[in-house]
C-alpha cells in the first residue's frame, strides 16, 4: 500500500470512531499528531432548555448534520442565561471532537451530565431556563505526521 493510500485509510478509520461510542476530546489525541486549529469560531445555538429538562439529542443531531461530511470539527459547549455568546457563560467541557457521523445521543447524554454538574457546582438550581451553545470550528490534522509511526 502506498503511503498516501495508507493516510487516506487512517483518516477514514479515524472519522468512523470520533465521538461514536464514547466522547472524543481534542486533548486525547496523541501530542505527536499536528492539529491545525486556524480559522474563526462559529456558533450553533441549541434550543433553550427549561431547568430540570435535558438537552435533546435531536438538537445535537441537527448540529451534527449541519457539518460537512468528511471533515473533523471541535466544539466547546457552554451555557448562558441570556443566549448571548459575548456575555458571561459556563464552559461545560473541554473541546469535543465530532464529525457528521458522531453519535448525537452519546454527546447529549455527556452534555446533560455536564449541565447537571454545572448547575450543582454553581448552585444555579433557581434557573428557570438556560441556553446551550456550541462554539465550533473545523480542524485539520496533518496526516503526514503519521509517517513517523509507520
Sheet with the most strands, sense and barrel status: 7 strands, antiparallel
Helix content: 25-40%
| Radius of gyration from the alpha-carbon trace, in angstroms | 17 Å
Low-confidence segments, given as residue ranges, are none
- How do the SSEs run, as a string of H and E? HEEEHEEEHE
- What characteristic shape results from the CA principal axes? elongated
N- and C-termini, Cα separation? 12 Å
Give the beta-strand count.
Answer: 7
Question: How confident is the prediction overall: mean pLDDT?
Answer: 84
Could you name the key traits of this structure?
alpha+beta; seven-stranded antiparallel β-sheet; 150 residues
Describe the structure.
By secondary structure, the protein is an alpha+beta fold. The protein has one domain. The protein has 3 helices and 7 strands; from the N terminus they run αβββαβββαβ. Strands 1, 2, 3, 4, 5, 6 and 7 form a 7-stranded antiparallel β-sheet that branches. Helix 2 packs across helix 3. The mean pLDDT is 84.
Topology:
Blueprint: H1 3-17, E1 24-25, E2 34-36, E3 42-50, H2 57-64, E4 72-80, E5 90-91, E6 96-98, H3 104-121, E7 129-142
Antiparallel strand pairs: 1-6, 2-7, 3-7, 4-5, 4-6, 4-7
Quick summary of this structure?
With 150 residues, this protein is α+β, with helices and mostly antiparallel strands. Helix content is 27%, strand content 28%. The mean pLDDT is 84.
Amino acid at each position: 500500500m502506498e503511503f498516501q493510500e495508507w493516510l487516506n485509510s487512517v483518516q477514514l478509520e479515524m472519522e468512523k470512531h470520533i465521538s461514536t461510542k464514547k466522547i472524543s476530546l481534542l486533548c486525547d489525541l496523541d501530542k505527536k499528531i499536528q492539529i491545525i486549529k486556524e480559522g474563526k469560531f462559529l456558533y450553533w445555538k441549541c434550543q433553550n432548555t427549561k431547568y430540570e429538562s435535558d438537552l435533546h439529542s435531536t438538537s445535537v443531531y441537527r448540529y451534527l448534520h449541519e457539518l460537512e461530511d468528511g471533515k473533523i470539527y471541535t466544539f466547546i459547549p457552554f451555557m448562558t442565561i441570556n443566549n448571548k455568546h459575548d456575555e458571561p457563560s459556563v464552559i461545560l467541557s473541554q473541546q469535543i471532537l465530532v464529525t457528521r457521523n458522531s453519535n448525537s445521543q452519546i454527546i447529549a447524554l455527556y452534555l446533560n451530565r455536564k449541565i447537571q454538574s454545572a448547575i450543582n457546582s454553581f448552585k444555579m438550581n433557581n434557573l428557570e431556563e438556560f441556553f446551550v451553545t456550541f462554539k465550533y470550528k473545523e480542524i485539520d490534522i496533518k496526516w503526514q505526521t503519521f509517517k513517523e509511526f509507520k
